[in-house]
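dumping these here so i dont lose them again. two proteins, back to back, each one seq then structure tokens. dont judge the mess
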Amino acid sequence: MKINAYVVVFGIIGIVIVAAALSALVSNQGPVPTDLSKVPNHGPAPNFQGIAAWINSPVLDLSKLRGKVVLVDFWTYSCINCLRTLPYLNAWYGRYGNNGLVIVGVHTPEFQFEKNYSNVLGAVRTLEIKYPVALDSGYATWNAYGNQYWPADYLIDKNGDIRDMHIGEGGYNATEMLIQALLQNAGYAISTGITANSVNGTSVNFSQVGTPEIYVGYSTARLPIGNPQGFSPGQVVSYILSGPMQNNTVYFSGKWYNAPDSMISSGSDSKLFLIYKAKNVNIVGQGNSSQIIVKLDGNNLPQTYLGSDLVMHDGVTSASISSARLYDIVRAPSYGWHVLEIIASPGFRLYTFTFG
């Protein structure tokens, strides 16, 4: 689960009053009852507002979807938590899409590049999303729901009322059982059984992940970088490593430009280091075919540790960074503490690290 970075200052600050009311909806606090008489009705769902564009669909209006069950999924394409839920959403759409279920992926961007229609369209095609996607680039629909999280799913019944909200990953069986109950209540004849059990999804043991998501822009970072020089907004800084490194803290070496939402390598000597605990490592990055060399514990990665975006050539493990997106760089066989080193060619732009 990701929390909107602009709504967090060492804790969650509600955007609007309705967010407090919606907190009572969160289904991942326990099983969701499928007897609808026991499922709270939280009133009318807000309509889609301020949508910049639609993908896979003409303009949708919730008032025109009465009689159907609607799942509104807030997501953004660089969010690893969102990406891990997509196989389940795709499976539900495939099974129930012609039997009364409407899924709308409300794409609310975390980064500026995610406001670009072509970028979102490319992600939708790559991820093989067939259901409607609404570009909520100005956060109008997000704010109407009082939402704070990626991903967040709102289930809406045949009358247009919100019956449940689920934040983050997991809880797929309970969500599908509630979808089935709402569809049956709406008069649709559906087969029972849980689709989620057959989905080839990725599960994460979060109790074994010892490093939180790390942002590196001077405006987005929740914690300082490890270098004593710190951030210098709008400046190229020649960073120097000094002293021992602390866990879960990014250290830079060489020249890096300090941008509000990222750090950009600006010399032939640009490197970074991070001691983390996890199994998988992802970065949100961008570049002009910029090359990064990735090392773990001082060595090139073994073949069995390569993320899907990493390649090995002559024993060197590297990735080419072009379009702005999430890059999968480390997939270790087990959880553990490691020292990550990235050696970056000029123009590599790093937004954030995520772990699994």
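---- next one ----
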Amino acid sequence: MKEEHSIKLIKIIRPANVTITFFSVLAGGFICSVNKNISFKLLLAAVAAAFIAASANIINDYFDIEIDKINRPERILASGELNVRTALIIYFFFILGGTALSSLVHVQAMLVVVGSIILTFFYSYKLKKIPLLGNAVVAFMTGLAFLFGGVAVGKISAAVFPFIFAFTINFMREVVKDMEDTEGDTRANVFTFPVKYGFENAKTLLYVVGLFLLIAMLIPYLLKIFNAKYLAVIAGSVVPMLVYSMYILHKGNDRASYGRVSFLLKLQMVFGLIAILLGV
């Protein structure tokens, strides 16, 4: 039984997203710290952020139960594999745990965490139904992990570019996920950008944002913020994957194609994180 409960917990918190959040905070704090080290307080901040990321996934699934029965019936709440009451108990455990851990870092860290809890709740409840605003909120929260690492060590300037990178990648991914989920969103009267303005306009938006990202990724190297290792990883992994993602997007008009693009964008986030860490 304990093993079964553990599997259900892992499913609902989305471990890949939580892990990326954890390491993004560590990376943000590492590049912002004077001595380029990982302190105990930074570790606490990373765990706190991981808790909040887990809670955000749970509350999002809670509000999306009916939509997920159409778009993603395999999800643990939509399928009935986990009951709502248990999910909410886990949610409150994570938000209280995240708040408590952040309070051990300092007051500023705790304020960021409390603000994040409020924002993710209202995103799941209301904001996600507003075209592009909902996408921007998720992208902001993902990028915030880097800035939060800087907050934990008392300096955020070096984390600004990683924030922009993460924001842009995840904004694109959220729009692509909306393209995947149009059937359920339409039935539930959730007017995302692809639902309201059509797939071709959504693709055009993604091409423009993708071009911005390609240019933006070069700037930290040209300004000597990051070294040649950063450029090598970006040029050898993120750029080819981004170009290939746009190619799939251009050629494909089905849910499977959009799913591949979404996966590739998540992979680009991972390699971008590696590039940033190697580049300092």
